[in-house]
Amino acid sequence: MEFTQKELYQLINLANRPLWLVGADLSGANLSRAGLQDADLAWSNLQGADLRGADLESASLRSANLSGADLRNANLKNANLEGANLEGARLQGATMPDGRTYY
What we know:
103 residues; little secondary structure; Pectate Lyase C-like
């Protein structure tokens, strides 16, 4: 199932928390400033996604494909990135799982 950008934002903003998107194909999606706290995005494809300023605090990104994703200024505090592919991801200004800012 594919979502339009408007439908995707409605899904995220109107959904009961936590959001469960395990294995979702969100490649190239514009998720900038999205509220994805506690979301389960394990094994999801977020290749090339725009996640600038997104709140991914305590989200599960286990084995997610984040290659080429734009995570600048995103909040990844306490996020699970075990096995995630971050090759080519832009992380400038992001708060990493340990609470430190990536420069």
